[in-house]
Amino acid sequence: MKNTIFQLLTRTTWLKAHLYLALSLGLFFALMGLSGSISIYREELDGLLNPQLIIKVPQGTYQSLDKMMASVRTAHPNRYGAWTLEMPRSPQGMVTAWYEKPTETFFELYAPLMVSVNPYTGDVVMSRFWGTTATTWLLDLHTQLRLDRFGWNAVGILGLFLLMSCGSGLYLWWPGIKALSLAFKVRYKAGMMVFAFDLHRFMGLISAVSLIVLAFTGFLLSYPSILETFTGSSGMEHGQTGRTITSTAIPNNHPTGLSAASFVAQAPFPKAELRRVTTPAGDTGIYRINLRQSSEVNQRHPFTTIWVDRWSGQIKEVRNPAKFSKGEIFATWIWPLHTGEALGAKGRFIWFLSGLSVFVLYISGLLRWLCRTGWVRDREVNYSALIPLLRRLRKGNYRLIYEAYLLIRLFAKKAKTLTPHIRIAYDMLLKWIKQLQVVLLNKHKRFGKK
User: Fold this and answer.
1) Between the N and C ends of the chain, which has fewer C-beta atoms within 10 Å?
2) CA gap 340, 350 in Å, rounded
3) Contact of 94 with 53, CB cutoff 8 Å
């Protein structure tokens, strides 16, 4: 039996498995990689596309949480139930008020209302639905292929197949001890096909570990029940808050406000950072305050949670990550490890490059296969043609930027005729293009004359 297995798992078998995975699912891998890379910097990109969400000059201290929430309720008077105020992570950022199930998107898997509030003035700046902005649309594409629950499960399965592809690729890469030094060479002067093969092999090697981590954590995020079974934990799914806690106090005419509840919640953790405050829903509702301790790896969705009763103003329960079991601690790492926030700024950039590498691996591998099957002919690569382009970039010639702008604008006009989601992205892109056009034409008016 063992001999039969080893006879089947030959290099040819691994090669076929790697090839068939790439041909059938490679495009999806590349799509996941590109969308994931861009989504790593989705907050920065959202600020770039919407400059009004960036506070250029902070104006002193924040307004009270009660005033911010009053502005939100004035802007949306018919939205009842719980709201969650998410605090910004920089002095230039906005407070975001989340309303989980608006009537407009009630039947979608995840499409909350996002209300941006200036924390220094308490004014509502913008209200948007998740999935209607370029960055959230792209993140939905990465997490669920825009196919709701079916897409969510499919992305998890894609993570498993990506693990298989990485494993088979590493096996095929191993050249043996004697030829190990040759496996790191990229022969860029030996023709396009040799260059594509060497680039595929080299990129696969340097990105293999990060891609394995991303594929594994992505699978666990798609199937949190497997993670909870594996770690022996519960209520640790990303975005979950543990068990439901209700108020047992008698309603009265002096309910505790948001600011007071947040002040009470800080008592057990005086040095913790306030991240989220969720308002009560109904008479039995209760405040849920999320703080972040310095020891927590999860920055955006920390697990330190305090429940404060609205009617009595007393703490009902505390969840302290410092007392988590090893399995629960492992679960807290999955989301920040997948997004790169657990690794700092340098780690996020490495994750960004790793996502892009999937696209490079797909293109280089596909090019190699098309050549072997006779669809594409091998040819020399003229690297000398890049020298004038590099010189122009070094001299800071704005003509190249202007030409790129024209190409982007042409693409945007073509995208205008596509789906409504693309139309939304187009409108944002056109707004940015017009701003870029003003800058370019002011600096180089001679381009407009030619």
Assistant:
1) N
2) 8
3) yes
